[in-house]
Every structure is written in structure tokens, then in C-alpha cells.
Please model this.
Amino acid sequence: MPDVPAWEKALKLLALRSRTAQELDRALARSGYGAPERASAVARARELGYINDGETARFRARTRVGQGDAPRLAAKKLVAQGVEEGEARAAATEAAEGASAVELASRALQRRLKGRAPIGERERQKLLRALIAKGHSPSAAAKVLGIDWEGTDDVEDW
Model:
């Protein structure tokens, strides 16, 4: 049994970084607090405005998309962090600021290349795989790399 009340531990955790309600609950569970104490601490933090899953989702989505993730991947990561799926999608869509899939893939590519052009076909293929891993559709990634794409975009849509 922890020697510090759950509420105090919750405050210390929230002082380190913003967390979703689910993340706070998990962190308190890892620290050894029981379900009633965790629920009380999370409810109090929410009541006082220390936890706001929507605001946390918007901030994290902007960060992820700014780092080159496609909105689809950013939303998936948010859901894994405890954000409700609809809220995660809305935050990721907002973070894209109306940019098309090709524009977002182009931004991710430029961020990765830091202004230089890809060197050779081998690097283009490597970059194609990297963009797809970041959640960009294969066709958008191929287009920004100048690669002919004849396949389908067999990537699940949100």
C-alpha cells in the first residue's frame, strides 16, 4: 500500500505532464492504489479541470502530425492512450488543418529530408516505406516521391 494518498500522487503525476484519465488511472494502478482510490483521484482531477482528454488529444495530435504522422496514425495513437475514438479523429482532423493526404505526405517527406532531394531509387523506396509506416497512404507517399504506384491503398480507413 502506498504511503502517499492517491490524490497527492495524481497531482505529482499531472505536474510531470498532461495525461488522459485512462493514463492517470493506469499510473496510479502501477503505483499500487486500489480501484476506489484511483477513481476518486481521477474524478477529482477531472472536476477541477486538471484532466481534459479533449485538450490533451488536440495537443498531442498537433504534435504527431507536425512530426510527420498521418492523421489516421495520430488518431490510432490517441485511442491507445485512452482518448475516445470520435474525439481522437476530430483532434487529428483538426491538426491536419485541411491539408490533403498528398500535402501531409509531402510535409513529412520534407521534414525527413531537411530540404535535400532523395538520392537514387534505393533511397526513394526506403522513404516510401517510412512514409507508409507513418500512416500515409501508399499512393500519396508514392506521388510525393515521384514513384509510379499501380497498387491499391490497402490501408484501413479510420
